[in-house]
Design a protein that fits this description.
The complex is a heterodimer of chains A (about 300) and B (about 280).
Chain A (H helix, E strand, L loop, with lengths): L12 E4 L7 E4 L4 E5 L6 H8 L10 E3 L2 E2 L4 H7 E4 L11 H11 L4 H14 L15 H13 L5 E5 L7 H16 L3 E6 L2 H7 L2 E6 L2 E6 L1 H7 L4 E7 L4 H8 L4 E7 L2 E6 L6 H10 L4 E7 L3 H9 L5
Parallel strand pairs in A: 3-8, 3-9, 6-7, 7-8
Antiparallel strand pairs in A: 1-2, 1-4, 4-5, 9-10, 11-13, 11-14, 12-13
Helix pairs in contact in A: 3-4, 9-10
Chain B lengths: L20 H18 L1 H25 L6 H34 L3 H4 L5 H31 L10 H25 L5 H14 L14 H6 L4 H13 L8 H27 L2
The chains are: A alpha/beta (about 300), B mainly alpha (about 280).
């Protein structure tokens, strides 16, 4: 299995990036792979290295057995890249963006034009074919970026936070598009800091933070690894450490920890312990300024592993 | 693969076909020509306005007022062309580079093209050279119109004219690549006032180099300025009776300048492109 850290590269790509401290993973052919982590976790750097756009200071990364450092041209032949922020060629209109990108990959112009129209149709922006890029909305530009990443029929597609800044409706539409690409057998590597996105789309998810791999498994397996119970997070006006010992003795509390003013309690009785927690806090002269409840999820796993929330 | 399943990926075993570098280079060049054609009017106004205004004042008004002698026009015409092609070549590379690397990141799609990154830079420089050529071709007839007949102007060295225009454009396009990728975007205004303006005024564009015999220190100091060789080369080719540097010296100097800026420009582009 590709999940074994330090193993040989059985899959499509394998990154071992010391600049990111250490990130050693392998993505299998045809897999939908998610890199989940907060902003600044090193996700974009990882994508940059794998797409030959950032030079790793050490380590190796392979895409389809081509080394990103020594064989960047071979890597580029295999990949399509959807950037975090749309960066279309503004000197060209929508369809020209696709036609010229195809030309850079040696695709004859008649075939490129046919395929460009097909892609615009498939992505629901066929009516924008001759539009200036500046006249397109953010969501439409992002779709254009996906079309551009697909025009040369790459086997591996990298998407860097593809749904950031999109409205919920467009985001769902994009998810459908990504699912169908995956259904076609393409390998997809996507970064995201949205739990739900990773959970719903990916075959496997790597949770990264500060350039380090924390967890790597299927979303189901990761969720089952999340600490049991509902996470009740209570923010106090003062330091939470005084209350934490007492909270641990409450019935239904699996785990409790204090971090500054934040009291984190994992409860197998759901939110029913909230009133007891508040009572304990107030007995110690603190007032409660905020309460949040999170069901067991990738989010609670991330919080348990890093002590921080994702965004 | 049939066209009916155009969206299906290639079979896993198939290696992607290698695209010849020349095909990618030409596609990149076609893209730049397409964009330049769309912006042709803006391009010409932006890059030739300053030399044309100079032309009106020094090539038309001052001679009319008898402030300069008749021979001055023959010395000025090649210089105006030199400024036009140099400015055009620099700007057509430096400005897009500053924008692309500074904020729009638009060049990203070309950096993902399956060629070595240096090829993308080389193509930009060649595209800039063509724009310098176009600027010269645009300004020459206008200059001739504004100035009226110039006895010294000859077409007997048309080949030399083309070589000087192309070499000069290439040198300044490569300089544009270097400046556009090495200078911080916020400092691009400085580039014009600190680098380009002195280059134009001390580039022997508005006076022949031999004229500097009167100020010997200056005569040798200006030799570090590549614009001098373009101006003098244009003089040698277009108005050979005006005192000028030998075309052989001009050719060698421009070749050296071009190779230096080419090396620096492509290296600097690579540094900016690969983070």
């Amino acid at each position: 299995m590709g999940a074994a850290p330090g193993g040989p590269p059985p899959g499509v790509s394998r990154g071992e990036i010391v600049a990111l401290q250490s990130l050693d993973l392998a993505v299998k052919e045809g897999e939908f792979f998610g890199l989940l982590g907060p902003n600044g976790a090193g996700k974009t750097t990882t994508i940059g290295i794998l797409t030959t756009r950032v030079k790793a200071t050490s380590g190796t990364a392979l895409v389809g057995n081509a080394d990103v450092t020594t064989q960047p041209v071979r890597v580029r032949q295999r990949i399509g890249v959807v950037p975090q922020r749309p960066n279309p060629d503004r000197g060209l209109n929508a369809i020209e963006n696709l036609q010229y990108h195809a030309a850079y990959f040696g695709i004859p112009s008649a075939r490129a034009t046919t395929r460009a129209h097909e892609l615009l149709e498939q992505l629901g922006i066929a009516d924008k074919a001759s539009a200036k890029v500046d006249e397109m909305s953010g969501g439409q530009q992002q779709r254009l970026m996906i079309a551009r990443a697909l025009i040369h029929e790459p086997r591996v597609i990298f998407l860097d936070e593809p749904t950031v800044g999109l409205d919920p409706q467009t985001r769902l539409a994009l998810w459908d598009i990504l699912r169908s690409l995956h259904g076609e057998g393409r390998t997809i590597v996507m970064t995201t800091h949205y739990m739900e996105e990773a959970d719903k789309l990916c075959d496997r998810v790597a949770i990264v933070d500060r350039g380090e791999l924390l967890e790597l498994d299927t979303p189901e397996a990761l969720k089952s690894r999340a600490p049991g119970g509902t996470l009740v997070e209570v923010t106090l006006s003062g330091n939470a450490s005084e209350a934490v010992d007492h909270v641990r003795t409450l019935e239904g509390v699996l785990r409790a920890e204090a971090k500054g003013p934040v009291l984190r309690v994992y409860s197998d009785r759901g939110g029913r312990i909230v009133s007891s927690v508040i009572q304990i806090a107030e007995e110690r002269g603190a007032t409660v300024t905020n309460i949040s409840l999170t069901e067991p999820s990738l989010e609670t796993l991330f919080v348990a592993r890093t002590g921080r929330k994702l965004d | 693969m049939t066209s009916a399943v155009a969206t299906a990926p290639a079979p896993i075993v198939a290696e992607p076909t290698t695209v010849p570098v020349s095909a990618v280079f030409l596609a990149l060049l076609r893209r730049d020509i397409r964009v330049a054609r769309k912006e042709l009017v803006f391009f010409l106004v932006r890059t030739t306005m300053q030399p044309l205004l100079f032309l009106v004042v020094f090539g038309y008004l001052l001679p009319k007022m008898n402030f300069v002698g008749n021979g001055y026009q023959a010395a000025l015409l090649p210089g105006i062309l030199a400024v036009s092609l140099s400015l055009s070549a620099i700007q057509s590379v430096a400005l897009p580079m500053v924008q692309d690397f500074g904020w729009t990141k638009e060049i990203e799609d070309r950096l993902l093209a399956p060629v070595p990154t240096r090829v993308v830079a080389a193509e930009k420089i060649v595209a800039g050279m063509l724009q310098g050529f176009i600027a010269a071709a645009f300004v020459l007839p206008i200059a001739r119109l504004v100035m009226g007949p110039i006895a010294e102007l000859t077409w007997t060295h048309a080949g030399a004219v083309i070589v000087v225009v192309l070499l000069g454009s290439l040198a300044f396009s490569a300089l544009g690549m270097w400046l556009g990728t090495a200078i911080a975007p916020q400092q691009i205004g400085l580039m014009f006032s600190v680098i380009i303006a002195p280059m134009i005024f001390f580039g022997c564009a508005y006076y022949p180099w031999r004229g500097l015999d009167a100020v010997p220190v200056m005569k040798y100091l200006v030799l570090v300025n590549p614009m001098v060789y373009v101006s003098e080369g244009m003089r040698g080719a277009l108005t050979p009776t005006v005192p000028h540097m030998s075309l052989a010296v001009v050719g060698v100097a421009l070749l050296i300048v071009t190779s230096v800026f080419w090396t620096l420009g492509i290296r600097s582009f690579y540094k900016r492109a690969i983070g």
